[in-house]
Amino acid sequence: MNKQNVENSIIFFAKEIYNRNLVEAWSGNVSSVYTKESCLMTCTGAWLGHLTNNDLVEVAFDGSIIDKDKTKVPTSEKELHLAIYRNFSNINVVLHTHSPYTTNYFNINDFINFYSIEAKYSLGDIPLVEQNTRIVSNINKVIEALKINPIIVLRNHGVVSIGNTFKEAYGRIELLESQCKVKSTSKYE
């Protein structure tokens, strides 16, 4: 894959995530497969809405930093991203957002009954993984949940979505967030 194309895709979708209010400030992280042995991921503290090529670091699937700039530090969720790639060889993208309506909805509820047939068809039953630390602490539970569904919710923390393409992974997050917004603001809920 062409490095510039991968970087451009990460930057484009990171800004979409930020512009759609699915993250704020320095929260959230994004990665994409770059070679058979590595991925590009956002650096720790990177603001997705203001991402540049300098905010991306190449990391081998074994966890070693390949990037020539050894001062770059991968996202604190590096191990989560790498574990996902090791367990799902058929995916190219991992997105982790702190989607506010989804996070709020699943802090109160254990599941969602969608209003939209399209959402139910597209998203299925959303697995909920308990999470009580700032960095995902039980990666095995996340992997098991992703084996059931390519988008999951981390209680108190946000969303993880995987896919072959950015559009696929991002679309799930956007659709789930809109459904949780409707559910959270409905006077009939």
Explain what the structure shows:
The N and C termini lie far apart (46 Å). α1 (3-19) packs parallel to α6 and α3 packs across α6. The chain is globular. The protein has a 7-stranded mixed beta sheet with strand order 3-2-1-4-7-6-5, sandwiched between helices. β6 and β7 (158-163) form a beta hairpin. It has one domain: 3-Layer(aba) Sandwich (L-fuculose-1-phosphate Aldolase), CATH 3.40.225.10. The protein has helices spanning 3-19, 78-87, 100-108, 117-123, 139-148, 166-185, and strands at residues 29-33, 38-42, 56-60, 93-97, 128-129, 151-154, 158-163. The protein has 189 residues and is of the alpha+beta class. Helix content is 39%, strand content 17%. The protein is built from 6 helices and 7 strands, in the order αβββαβααβαββα.
Number of strands: 7
How many individual domains? 1
Quick one: overall form? globular
- Beta-strand percentage? 15-25%
Mean pLDDT: 95
CATH topology: L-fuculose-1-phosphate Aldolase
Biggest sheet layout = 7 strands, mixed
Class, according to the CATH hierarchy? Alpha Beta
- Give the low-pLDDT segments: none
The CATH superfamily title: Class II aldolase/adducin N-terminal domain
With strands numbered from the N-terminus, the spatial order across the biggest sheet is 3-2-1-4-7-6-5
